[in-house]
Amino acid sequence: MQEKAIPIALKRRDIIGVAKSGTGKSCAFLIPILEDLIKEKNKNSVLRALILVPTRELAKQIVNAIDDYSKYLDIKRVAIFGGISSKEQEKKLANGVDIVVATTGRLLEHLKNNTINLSSVSSVVIDELDTMLDMGFLEEVEKILPHIGKNRQISMFSATINSTVKKLAKEFLTDPVVIEVTNQRDHVEKIEHQIILVDEDKKTELLSFLIGSKNISQALVFVNKKLEADSLVENLNLDGLKASCIHGDIRQSSRALALRKFKEKELRVLVCTDIAARGIDIENLPCVINFALPETINDFTHRVGRTARAGNDGTAITLLSVKDYKFMSEIEKELMLKIPREELKGFETKEKKPRAKQPKPKSLKDKKILSKKRQTEDKPKASKSTKKRKVTKRG
């Protein structure tokens, strides 16, 4: 992505970048922004770049990347997101900044309160656009972009291109260059996938056994419900596995603390929901576990993509109960995977398996019709010449 996107961005062309997480997108859009800032930099900082992201975790991750890349530059940046007081953000904005990294909701609050002016922005990046659309932020993005001056370059990065992405691009981008870097399927195939069959009521017990018996040093565990995350953490800690969770109902400070402890390996397990996990980047994460299957195939690729990043090895384990057999098959078909199923000793499944589809027995009437049809097909057919002779005779 960096090799393809940076030269185009430096030419000030609009970009639609299609790439999975972990492909170096942050560097691809930050390097051109910093290059432009160096050229235009005055003594006072003026807001030149806006980066829109779906989650506060991703906002903080990008701000950290800016700090790394601009270590020897006089660049001022601010992260704007909810869950914390906006006063400190207002103060930084008032003192002048070069780059704003923001979630859409809090940015709209600042626009409403006239604490930010986007008219001087010349570079706009919308990162993880597909996630933003999944979270229902399309309308907010459409409200923000008109506040930016016409002389701007816009780069949109998404894991997939759908009709909504195309609509947004058509509305706000000018003759964009489309850059596609590998299919998500390519990355998913490089991960070591495992499926462990288990009854639904044995999943919690199996999770602890699995992490302990396989000696998994770090595991990012995905669930679909907040209450399920809380319950799992309680059970894991009771089993002697240090765990915490992040989801929408947990305060930002607590989420940040849990993520920091997990990265520093003070926690062995981090349980999270899909939305809270977007933007999480953990170096050399060895294992992702799907405690429950996600709602969509795209979410599955986002989940397993947390491991095996930047060329490292990684394992994705799915705990599969009977109710999810069908959807798991759909995921495998779409991603062209064939993952072997296994059962662990002591956790053999007892749930009733779905019966293979049996052909519907034919009625007596159908059997008679079929028999007549076969008899007709078995009769010798007249040759073409015979048919012609008959016609001639009739004439």
Description:
With 395 residues, this protein is α/β, with parallel strands linked by helices. It contains 17 helices and 14 strands. The protein has helices at 2-10, 25-40, 56-69, 87-95, 104-112, 129-134, 138-144, 163-172, 184-190, 203-213, 226-238, 252-263, 274-277, 297-304, 325-335, 364-378, 384-394, and strands spanning 15-18, 49-53, 77-80, 99-103, 123-126, 153-158, 177-180, 192-197, 219-222, 243-246, 269-272, 287-290, 315-320, 341-342. Strands 3-4-2-5-6-1-7 form a seven-stranded parallel sheet, with helices on both faces. Strands 10-11-9-12-13-8-14 form a seven-stranded parallel sheet, sandwiched between helices. Helix 2 crosses helix 3 (56-69). It is globular and about 85 Å long. Belongs to the DEAD box helicase family. Residues 352-362, 382-395 have a biased composition (Basic residues).
Question: What are the SSEs and their pairings?
Answer:
Blueprint: H1 2-10, E1 15-18, H2 25-40, E2 49-53, H3 56-69, E3 77-80, H4 87-95, E4 99-103, H5 104-112, E5 123-126, H6 129-134, H7 138-144, E6 153-158, H8 163-172, E7 177-180, H9 184-190, E8 192-197, H10 203-213, E9 219-222, H11 226-238, E10 243-246, H12 252-263, E11 269-272, H13 274-277, E12 287-290, H14 297-304, E13 315-320, H15 325-335, E14 341-342, H16 364-378, H17 384-394
Parallel strand pairs: 1-6, 1-7, 2-4, 2-5, 3-4, 5-6, 8-13, 8-14, 9-11, 9-12, 10-11, 12-13
